[in-house]
Inverse folding.
């Protein structure tokens, strides 16, 4: 089945530790995104990538890092510099080349809940 | 900067009735997209409906329709014949359609409860 797979579903981080959240898509989408969701808040953009080997900071990039070595994969690392990492993290992807009605629509994975031990 | 406001943190509707969720946005652009996403208890975001700003006709998807008022910068979602499965958080989102623009701006959401 085509879709966006995020893993793990739950993740725990110890103080001073870096952790990596995985996001894989087999939809042949061009762009990929990472969002953070806190209780009572909408989604806030952390990073996005339009093409392989290129990515841009979103509104809340501090304390996070990403890579885009393959079109299908866009992992997010939550570094020890992120002092309040407890949140729900959502990955999304979209078609950006001209391809009709699906263009510009972001589709989401099931999310990863990150907690601090 | 664009902002999206959902003024109703919570709403409830009787099963089989109709409910309207409100959304307003602020932008200086003329060409953009607006979206409604649903987030059920599973927390996966699901696209409900999309509206392109240059289209005057309101988008519809089965029981879901929008009332898009471009001049008023208003984008409400109407759910007809509400079902128990419609209970979820609903988020309104905006995206500028210009070249190189990728960011979605979300409102804070409206929690919809459906009463049997």
């Amino acid at each position: 089945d085509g879709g966006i797979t995020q893993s793990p579903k739950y993740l725990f981080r110890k103080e001073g530790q870096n952790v990596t959240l995985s996001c894989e898509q087999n939809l042949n989408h061009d762009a990929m995104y990472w969002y953070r969701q806190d209780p009572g808040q909408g989604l806030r953009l952390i990073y996005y990538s339009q093409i392989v080997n290129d990515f841009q900071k979103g509104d809340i990039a501090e304390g996070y890092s990403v890579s885009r070595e393959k079109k299908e994969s866009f992992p997010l690392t939550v570094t020890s510099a992120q002092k309040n990492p407890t949140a729900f993290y959502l990955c999304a992807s979209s078609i950006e080349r001209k391809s009709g009605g699906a263009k510009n629509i972001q589709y989401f994975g099931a999310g990863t809940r990150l907690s601090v031990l | 900067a664009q902002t999206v406001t959902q003024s109703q943190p919570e709403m409830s509707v009787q099963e089989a009735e109709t409910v309207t969720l409100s959304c307003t946005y602020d932008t200086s652009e003329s060409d953009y997209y607006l979206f409604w996403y649903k987030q059920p208890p599973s927390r996966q975001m699901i696209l409900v409906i999309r509206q392109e700003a240059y289209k005057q006709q309101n988008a519809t998807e089965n029981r879901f329709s929008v009332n898009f008022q471009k001049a008023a910068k208003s984008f409400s979602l109407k759910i007809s014949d509400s079902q128990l499965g419609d209970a979820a958080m609903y988020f309104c989102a905006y995206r500028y359609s210009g070249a190189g623009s990728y960011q979605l701006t979300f409102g804070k959401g409206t929690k919809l409860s459906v009463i049997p």
